[in-house]
Amino acid sequence: MTPDIAGLALIGVLGLLVGSFLNVCVHRLPRDLSIVFPASHCPACEHALRWYHNVPVVSWLVLGGRCAFCRSRIHWRYPVIELLNAGIWVLHGLLFPWDALLLVRIGFASVLIVLFFTDLDCQILPNELTVGGTVAGLVVSAFLPPGLRSAVLGVLLGGGVLWATGAAYERLRGVEGMGMGDVKMLAMIGAVLGWPLMLLTLVWSSIAGGIVGAALLAVRADARTTALPFGSFLAPAALAASLVGQPVLDWYLGFYR
Length: 257
Ligand SMILES: [Zn+2]
Prior knowledge:
Elements: H1 5-28, H2 58-62, H3 77-95, H4 100-122, H5 127-141, H6 148-173, H7 180-193, H8 195-219, H9 231-254
Helix pairs in contact: 1-3, 1-4, 3-4, 4-9, 5-6, 5-7, 6-7, 6-8, 7-8, 7-9, 8-9
The structure holds zinc ion.
């Protein structure tokens, strides 16, 4: 099957535009600001941007990564998040049949991108995305894979396992090891992907977290006291599970048939 180049290009352009909106979400959601008003403006001089200052990636390149009005630097992460979202959307277009589930999974991927950066920047996983995503995930799962039963189990198991782990850790060590944001985020992942892929996400994110945590301990003496933003590990793990998790599970479970 030859990929539909025009269709993929359209997905890429839409991915860039939505990526531009994700930047707004990453900046405003953890600060409890409206993601609609005011319109995009320079964080340094507050000058409102014109539409041609807001063209994804292109404007940043043309303006040399600086504000058109006050010339203060605009972070390179803005075009990177736009390109990241577009690239991940196109990847979905290549791996999924073009039906309703593709729309669900690209929306899910964009939510994961925002959660990755808000947890990294502010150690916040906004309820709008975690709780809102859980509700939205349950509703669409009633009509699409993984089905309502698997989604409900995903919410209960995902939230329950992390909550219990955090409670046990808190009892043993006397410090909070798992934030409620992580609990709600894994519940959301369970609602969208269903319980088997949710468990795969948990395994992959724990392995990645363990490796990064050990590496940090090796290079920084104070790493033991710095809590890792677990949501920033859950996000790429859930994305990988969404894209390739099912074939991996089929292959792995094949050993036990
Ligand atoms: Zn400015």
